[in-house]
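Lecture notes, continued. The same structure-token format from the folding unit now serves as the input rather than the output. Read the line below as a description of shape only.
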């Protein structure tokens, strides 16, 4: 392992089982296992995959002041939920830019586990205080339409944890905090388990049929689901309004939150850009940084966006896909050219997500893009 990188409690298991390891956010984590990213991706869409996401931080706040601290710093309103629930929210700078997007697990009346992105844990800790307990646990994400069937075999109590619920349970005498959020567009849970018990729980899930998956599949899954990634669709110079995430902003929350004044000015001025999807005509993958040529699609006097924020190959759609910020006047169905590495890739602007969660459409029949049914078995 490279000097200075952190290791998950599952690191030795990954190495022993053929994982290709890469640096990510200051950690050495598995990019893929022996079957490869495509197989891991489709295992999550069709059945169940298990991901090591221990690189995500855990900042723990406890005591009667914890709720007030989070309310004054984070954009969403914890008053909408309560103990035993989870909430997606943002930490902003004074200019309204997204310092981090994170999940708050309201574990007990006076205990909150705040889950930042790996490289932002220190920033979140500095903003809200608390205690960094990242090194004390592993976080295992079990995702896919069969995830709860796997849990029914290995950890039945966890199988009944509802969407965006948080519960403290016991697995073979070990305390485990279970939250049902996810980052793939599929059903599933995250399990925060003490570091010393991580391998045992991981092996039990794999033994029950979950396919080990790495960061490669996690990225293609979140991209198909149209989910933003900090450092790509969120970050310096990008506000929640730019990213189409106004629903995380509790405008009327008593006391407000950091960055509120800047966002109120932006809201009054009207939207500048919107986050949109680009669906390629062919199988060639798009990549972050590729230029987007809009031509006549750009309204007069509006500067076109420079590049894709994210891009890859969609295993479900068998096409290249990408996300970028477009001027608000560019409508879905607009044809553009995506240029990079000597290629010109025709694409159309589409609404996100590329691949809605199975069952979310009329009658629950398969998945669709721009109203066109796409079989879930596409490869």
């Amino acid at each position: 392992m490279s000097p200075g990188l952190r290791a998950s409690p599952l690191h030795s298991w990954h190495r022993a089982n053929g994982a290709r390891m890469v640096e990510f956010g200051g950690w050495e984590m598995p990019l893929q296992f022996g079957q490869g990213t495509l197989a891991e991706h489709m295992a999550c869409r069709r059945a169940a995959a298990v991901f090591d996401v221990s690189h995500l931080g855990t900042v723990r706040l406890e005591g009667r002041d914890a709720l007030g601290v989070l309310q004054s710093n984070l954009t969403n309103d914890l008053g909408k939920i309560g103990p035993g629930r989870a909430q997606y929210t943002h930490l902003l700078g004074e200019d309204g830019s997204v310092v981090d997007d994170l999940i708050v697990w309201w574990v007990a009346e006076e205990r909150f586990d705040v889950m930042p992105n790996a490289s932002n844990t220190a920033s979140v800790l500095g903003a809200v205080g608390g205690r960094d307990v990242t090194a004390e646990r592993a976080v295992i994400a079990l995702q896919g339409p069969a995830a709860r069937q796997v849990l029914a075999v290995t950890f039945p109590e966890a199988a009944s944890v509802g969407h965006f619920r948080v519960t403290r349970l016991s697995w073979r005498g070990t305390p485990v905090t279970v939250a049902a959020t996810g980052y793939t567009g599929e059903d599933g849970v995250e399990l925060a388990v003490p570091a010393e018990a991580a391998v045992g729980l991981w092996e039990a899930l794999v033994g029950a049929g979950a396919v080990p998956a790495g960061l490669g599949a996690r990225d293609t899954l979140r991209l198909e689901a149209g989910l933003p990634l900090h450092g790509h669709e969120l970050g310096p110079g990008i506000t929640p309004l730019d990213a189409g995430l106004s629903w995380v902003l509790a405008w009327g929350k008593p006391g407000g939150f950091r960055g509120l004044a800047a966002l109120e000015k932006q809201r009054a001025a009207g939207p500048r850009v919107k986050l949109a999807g680009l669906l390629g005509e062919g199988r060639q993958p798009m990549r972050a940084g590729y230029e987007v040529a809009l031509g006549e699609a750009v309204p007069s006097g509006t500067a076109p966006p420079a590049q894709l924020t994210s891009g890859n190959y969609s295993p479900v759609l068998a096409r290249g896909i990408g996300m970028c910020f477009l001027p608000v006047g560019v409508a879905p169905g607009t044809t553009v050219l995506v240029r990079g590495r000597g290629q010109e890739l025709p694409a159309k602007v589409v609404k996100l997500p590329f691949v809605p969660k199975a069952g979310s459409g009329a009658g629950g029949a398969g998945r669709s893009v721009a109203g066109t049914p796409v079989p879930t078995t596409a490869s």
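Point for the exam: The first helix runs from residue 11 to 16.
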